[in-house]
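For the sake of transparency, this paper describes our internal protein records without simplification. Because each token names a local backbone shape, the row as a whole describes the fold. One such record is reproduced below, unchanged from the form in which we store it:
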Amino acid sequence: MRNEGEVALPEGRVVETGDAAQKPKNTCPECGSHHLMRDEVRGEVVCGDCGLVIDESTLVSDFGRHSSKDESSMEGRGYGPAVNPLMPEKGFSSEIGLPTRDFQGNSLSRDASLKFYHLRKLNHRLRLGRTHQRNMVVALGEINRLVSVLGLSREIKESAIYTYRRALEYKATRGKKIVAFAAASVYAACRQCHVPRTMKEITMHSKATKIEVGRAYTLLARELKIGLRPLEPRDYLVRFTQELNLSRPVRQKVLELLEQVEKVYSTSGVLPNGILATIIYIASNLMGEPRSQDRIASVANVTPVTIRNHYKELLEALGLPKDLTNPVTKTKPK
């Protein structure tokens, strides 16, 4: 039963409109309706009949959007800090900054600085008291470093951290190098997000060897049941053509030759970036915009010998004459 001076809102909510609260008013000044509704997201009181915004400065006292009927069943939901997967404790722990100044910018006294320094040290010990928490801190630092050096996106960073957390939960990292599993997680994230990065590129910037990263990735794929399709030359197409600054006709020719190669040439067991590098070399010479083998090999992260080994095979598979071009390894790029 409602008291005088109150207006019923949807889902059982009530807004006081008597002397206790001057805003919102109990009637709409436009149409005189008593059907007032509160928008919990925007903090507004709106007339349900004409749509007039009566008050746009009300305080939002409830973080949730659920009704009063199911408040008991959803108690505790919608409160607390947001989850941040990029932090070791997902953002749930407290952070104590360096004890140098107070909130007004004034320098702290020596006793106050020592007190807050002691609290900061205790907080740090409590946060990293368990082994897997210390492990996660080291792994996050290594993943952040690899992602920054390789110029990868936030999506890949989150995917790599999620993969490493799962490996930590399955205890797959026990007795293994943290840096190797961090690099393997970044490689798996690149594969999952369809961003072409070879394991050689990642291990070049990692503190672990290629063998250690390869073993860690094999263990991750087996324990976490990560099913990833093999890389194909098409996955590197956009990246290589952009880095080599190829014109649009050359890109179209590369795509045309690649489609022909996929039909008549088996790329199983062959480096996909090496195959695409050879196709780019052939297409650039056909279109009169040659690129040197050294430059293409540097972008594709292969050796010029790899391009020369596939060169004659692809010419034969495409039905092109062997004397189509005169391979010159030091042609100046345009």
User: Anything to note?
Assistant: The longest strand covers residues 36-39. The mean pLDDT is 76. Residues 261 and 314 are 7 Å apart (CA to CA). The chain has three domains: 1-80, 131-223, 233-318.
